[in-house]
Amino acid sequence: PSSRPATYMSPIPMPTTTPVRVAIVGGGLTGAAVGRALRRALPAESVVVWEGLAQLGGRMMTERTTVLGGATGLADSGAQYVTVTDDADVAEAHKPLYDSLAAAGVLVPMRGRIEGGRAADGGGTNYVAPQGVASIVERVFSMSSLSPCCSRRATALRHVAARGEEARSRWELTSADGRCEQFDGVVVACPIPDMLALIDTGEGGAWLDGASGVGRADLTGVQYSSRYALTLFYPASAAAVFAAHIDWAARYVSKADDDAIVYLAHDSAKRGGDDGGAVSLVVHTSVPYGIRALKAAEPEESVLADLRARVGKLLPWLPEPESLVLRPWRVSQVRYPVALPGGAACLPLRPAAGGRAAPALVLAGDAFSPLGSRFDGCVQSGESAAAAVLAALVGT
Asked: Which of 266, 287, 364, 395 is 20 to 30 A off residue 224, Cα-Cα?
């Protein structure tokens, strides 16, 4: 069955000629998809994006470093590759985006071999990003002529009543660096724990509590996987060593081989790295290992030493890395998305008392898409959230 909501990719209404401003909280893939969809109806100056981290991408994280000799090292420590959904309707709807990214060289078919696999990927084409998965998000924002504000973490969201002749109230969004701006609509596109923390600073939390059908309990019940990602960087000369010992670009590790590590990626090879850049290896732990170590507040030095020892047993030929990064992912993939009525892919919030002049507030992300934590799920939720905001702006 199709996972496409009834309103998905429907014609987006043009809002009133009165200038409007919409904020997107979150510079990951969902936020980029929201921005892309909003730009079909709004000028670039009407769309503002705040991202709390210093770089775009969210969980589509690309580590960047420089190794001996000046070679650039890239490695995807979050999402690894993009697999086109098996949902034919959604795949067709997203084909223009895939085609645009492919034409720009941002996405290319994955050439390397994957040893093992997982059923959740489905049978669609696998794509990789030669410049890292974060470049996908960066490109979607760029093609929308949007310039997100990085290192701008939203800390408060407050409802501001209409004044005088104003027909519509607004949202006041405040950031950790002291920025305070008002918007006619806000899309919150970050993981649910961060989302709830933000809307609970103001009236948005009460709107959620007063919602019918889907409410706070449904959101707090969403479970995310937790894991560690270890990235090891080597000089370009190590490419020959890797080529002599492995012929895969990615490998899913069985529990019999190791009970903590589930995935290895010869990341530079996975991305088609034949440009003489640094060699990179990415290691993902299992969810139980991640949960156990994070709950126990294990020192990162202990986790790092344990993982390096385990990797050494799996790949005893590995040379000593020049640099490494251990990234704890407390919030990784969504295990089961929120089941929204009608197969919807976002959650618009309204005050319990109603009122057509209430400013738009929409929650979006992989936790709301029937497709879950995958490229198409984030894009689907972003498209739906943009349609919901624009519909609210014109009072439909």
From this structure: 266
Alpha-carbon span 265 to 242, nearest angstrom: 11
For 384, the enclosing helix (H) or strand (E) is helix 375-393
> How many helices (H) does the chain have, and how many strands (E)?
11, 19
Predicted confidence at residue 7, as pLDDT, reads 44
Side chain identity at residue 156, one-letter code = A
Q: What is the CA radius of gyration of the chain?
A: 22
| Alpha-carbon span 93 to 84, nearest angstrom | 11
pLDDT digits (tens, 9 = 90+) for 108-158: 999 999 998 765 566 789 999 999 999 999 999 999 999 999 999 999 999
What's the DSSP call for residue 334?
A: B
pTM of the model: 0.92
Locate the DSSP E strands across the chain. 22-25, 47-50, 62-66, 72-76, 82-83, 108-109, 114-115, 126-128, 154-160, 170-175, 180-183, 185-188, 227-234, 250-252, 261-265, 279-285, 323-329, 346-349, 360-364
